[in-house]
Amino acid sequence: MLYSFNVQFGGSLIPLARKIVVASIAATLSACASMSAGNLFSHYSAQHSDVYQSVNQGQYQVAQDSLPSIESGIAGPILDNMERGRVELLNQSYAESMASLKRSDQAARVQADQPVISVSETAASVGALAANDNLTSYEPADYELGFLHLYLGLNYLRGNDLEGALVEIRRANMVQEQARKRREAELESAADSASEQGVNENLGAIMANYPAAGKTLQAVQNGYLLYFSALLYETSDDLNSAYVDYKRALAVMPDNREVIDGVLRVGHKLGMKQDLAKLEKRYGQYKKPAKDKGRVIIIDEQQVVKALDSWQYSFPYYDSNAKQYFYYNLSLPYYPDMQGYAMNELMLDNQTLNSSQLVDVNLMAERDLVERMPTIIVRQALRVIAKEQIRREAAKDKDDVGNVLLNLWNILTEQADTRSWQTLPAEVYSSSTQVNPGAHTVSVNGQQYQFDVSAGRTTLVWISRQGQGSTIWHKQLGAI
Question: For the chain, what are the domain ranges?
């Protein structure tokens, strides 16, 4: 729900309206089903900590029980249902997971059809002006949209619907491209708003002092999504599409053994002699698997992605009307340094498997935040300046009580926007091996999972493990 509100810097404002603005705004916002009262005085990571910690410890049922109801929510239908769908997937509530992810997808579609709102318009909305960004609609990051469709695809595959899984994979590439274009439009809007309000001169100083902002990050794509996409295309005998995505995955993760095998395998089927000459010079000759063996491919999700925290920064702003500098405190999101915990080795038939990384989700999340920071800083700066102007109007009217209340309101409601998909894995690995046909067992976190392998066939085993918990299932991919 979006409200318009014209901010008049240094202009005259009706005293009575200013005295009751906080109460009226709070009452109005409480009527919005997508906005939690907790968002006024707390940020998302703090409100979501019970779910986050439960998933991190592998207590999936506790995490599912800790989720807010579908009706109440914390962050709106897109993010709330992403979190819900992921937790339900880990807790093996597959039908519920599919329903939640579909609700998130539908909400994201509705949002994508809406025009891009300028940063200044967002900062001037009643919700953002009165409180913080947590009261604005959540726009998912590009990598989050990719994971949304990846998990929809995994749900379809687990339910033996290969075509449904392929539809989600095709959509993943499309929606990420649309999101990228939308992000570029937002960055342009941020630059224009910063220039108009005189905030641009402070942007560089804030970014220079921002935690980890100076770290150069490579352009990271989701190798997990690309590899899964290639596997599905190969399973459906669409070898050209499979080869394209295997090569895209190889460009992202050039040392991943399963990706290398996929490129060589499909390259030989398609007769890509020129490509193969270069690939085999680097990676060695491709060896066709024995016909009396079966292939096992394991996807291994580990731990939980970092959760955003709040960081305080004081920046100077020159008020041309007052002809002096004022200092404002910004509450900005950042990813704290956190060490992961050691994971037990993955065992297949009591033998340790060699694994290769497919994706580092923490790296993707950190890069996305750095890209968003100019927009976040400008929006935050415009808001705190506007809120301070409201407080000064109360001071001009010699309304000491109103001045104190507004000052207290400004301090309490200044919360960083720490919304992100926090139940995603931190890292994802792959491994593969040739085995004899028959029953085989994967051992993980004390759990024994048995599955059958057929000669000349490939079996995919999907694992997600956090703390002492793990979720496992498998599917036959056929003769790939």
Answer: 15-214+313-337+358-419
